[in-house]
Amino acid sequence: MFKKLLKMTKGYEKYTILAPVVMVGEVVMEVLIPMVMALIIDNGIQGDRGIRYTVLMGLLMVCMAVVSMLFGALGGRFAAIASVGFSKNLRKALFDKVQDFSFANVDKFSTASLVTRLTTDVNNAQNAFMMLVRTAFRAPFMFLFALLMAISINAKLATVFLVAIPLLGVALYFIASTAFPRFRAMLKHIDKLNATVQENLIAIRVVKAFVREDYEKVKFEDEAKAVKAAQRHAEKIVILNMPLMQICANGCIVAVLWFGGNMIGQGTLQIGQLSSFISYIMQILMSLMMISMIFIMLVLSMASLNRIMEVLDEEIDITDDKADKSLRPQDGSIRFENVSFSYAKDAQRLSLMNVNLDIRTGETVGIIGGTGSSKSTLVQLIPRLYDVVSGRILVGGHDVREYSLEALRDDVAMVLQKNVLFSGTILENLRWGNPDATRQEIEQACRAAQAHEFIMSFPDQYETQLGQGGVNVSGGQKQRLCIARALLKKPKILILDDSTSAVDTATDAKIRKAFREQLPDTTKLIIAQRISSIMEADKVVVLDEGKVVDVGTHAELMERSEIYREVYNSQQKGVA
Prior knowledge:
alpha/beta; 20 helices
């Protein structure tokens, strides 16, 4: 883990090294100041060195304090730059990793959990990193130097620490080991809270339509209470840290004053030495307090770091490492050879079973079947959004695993069942399909998708701003924009996953006509609930419970396929 995290300092190595170096300089100055103070008291005030010695040593103290302050300021600046750079690199690594996820990888993590890991968990890691490069060097060095100075003053008096330090060590270990699982549980509750908020914001129109605001408020309040309870449960252990430190600090000071006072009376210790010894006690105890805070921060950050590493260490199950990067599909032919698939990657729990299909370039193929018959699963295997469990899929005569993912997906355009538009203008959304598309190409794609007319009806036309997710256009308009975006890729294979369900039958017919006329060489796969959308297809694939039960034209299936005939008759009755 730490080797991988160390790479996140790339570009900020200088600040990562400079921060602890200058912090050590600050510590050296702070540790020397009490020694100079003791010399002033014992030699200048109580001794015979006079006022000149006292003034000079006083000026030296001031200079040392100024240098210490400068070192501290520089250390803070360097640590801040290093930690912000670390968090930037870490967040980018997480985001890049998520971009490489297959659908199967994405299914393992909830959206809310990924958002929490990219925000809260990275912030915790940033705070821990800042503390490591700053305090984690400052505190141990201060403890060591101050302890050595205390021993040099009076080794016998320094034995007080032999009792205090082991007690603190045991207490800190108990706090850290107990708090870690509690903080991990707290972060899981934060995931659930984020999921509740995200779900509510996405579905806010449904909430209002069903007048369920009160229900959502109660649901949010319950999750917020769960987060609060988890935080309190974790903090109950952490808050013991400060009282324990105070008890040890006060106990040490009382013991030193008692034994040190007796030593002064016996003439074995000077007043200035006792004064500096007490300063060293405070430095030692302050360093121990800082070390304890580091432990607490590390406990919290370790829970976050483990969650971050879960994402970074996630094995991506679809890669193109062994693919031929120069290979591209030569045509839009598709062949399924004994293809079986399982979301669980379990041969006993198959979603698709022994699928065999042969689709020629330029064919229009309809896919129909009941809910849960794996229609979407079938087409998602073509651009390798998932990988088969057994068998193989050939596109352009080659196994899809022989292509690079970029080359394959560039030639396979897919309009998913759930239409997604992004914030920005209509033009910006359309250019997702082809960033270099000309205005003429864009308008041609929009005309084919029957979108040009309604786009031109907007005051800003193609420069119309779309809200998040395209909330200011209707479902049918959103579908047509997504189809136009796919067409701009000029793909060899076009897959429409129930992508005209929200448009009327007349518009649907116009879209299919445009496909026939303008995309004669593009293989078109159309998943549809309406048989009218696929009646004119070259062939129709009938799926039932993950199996291809029949393939043929509309007329052929009406004669021999009971499933197809039942769907057709039920829809005709609905029309009647």
